[in-house]
Amino acid sequence: MKIRIAGYKKHTLVNGPGVRFVLFMQGCPHHCPGCQNPETWDPAGGQETDTEEIIRLIRETRFLDGITLSGGDPLYQPEAAALIAKAAKEDGLSVWCYTGWTMEQIFAGTLPATVTEELLPQVDVLVDGPFIQSRLSQECIYRGSDNQRLLDVRETLRTGKAVLYNLE
Length: 168
Ligand code: SF4
Description:
Blueprint: E1 2-12, E2 20-25, E3 47-50, H1 51-60, E4 66-70, H2 78-90, E5 94-98, H3 103-107, H4 113-119, E6 125-128, E7 149-152, H5 153-159
Residues 28, 30-32, 35, 37, 40, 71-73, 100, 130-131 line the site of iron/sulfur cluster.
C-alpha cells in the first residue's frame, strides 16, 4: 500500500525504550507552535513509498526492540500505519505510536474507524496529545510537553478510557 513518509531512522534510543526503528510519517493537521518537524505537516510533502518497502527495511534492521511510528501524525494514514505495525508485532517487536490527537478525541469518533479497529490494536503504547510549548518539560521522558501521555493501548481499548502506561 502507498504511504507518504518524511523519513526514518533505523536505530534510535529516544522514541521509546530500547533500540527502535522510527518511521516519520508525512502529514499533520495539528500545526503545534514550536513543532520540531514542520516539514512533516504537508500531506503532499515528503516522499511516497510502499508499506512493503518499509516492512522490508524494518526486517533487515538488526538488534531492534521495537518500532515507533512518529511524524507528522501516523493517524493521518491509519491503514498504512496499521499494516506496518501488524508486521512488526508479528516479528515480536513492540510498537509505539505518537499522535497529536488525544485519546478522548479518538474515542469521540473524530478519526476514521480504521484507527480504533485496525491500527490501535497493533500498538502497545500511544503517546497522545499535541505539543504545547508552554508546557515543555525536560522531565517528560519520551514526550515533549507534560500534557502528553503515555497510554497503555490494550487497557485503554479494553476499558474505553485513557489508561496510563507504566514505564517501570
Ligand atoms: S502533532 Fe507532532 S508533528 Fe504534528 S504539529 Fe504537533 S508536534 Fe508537530
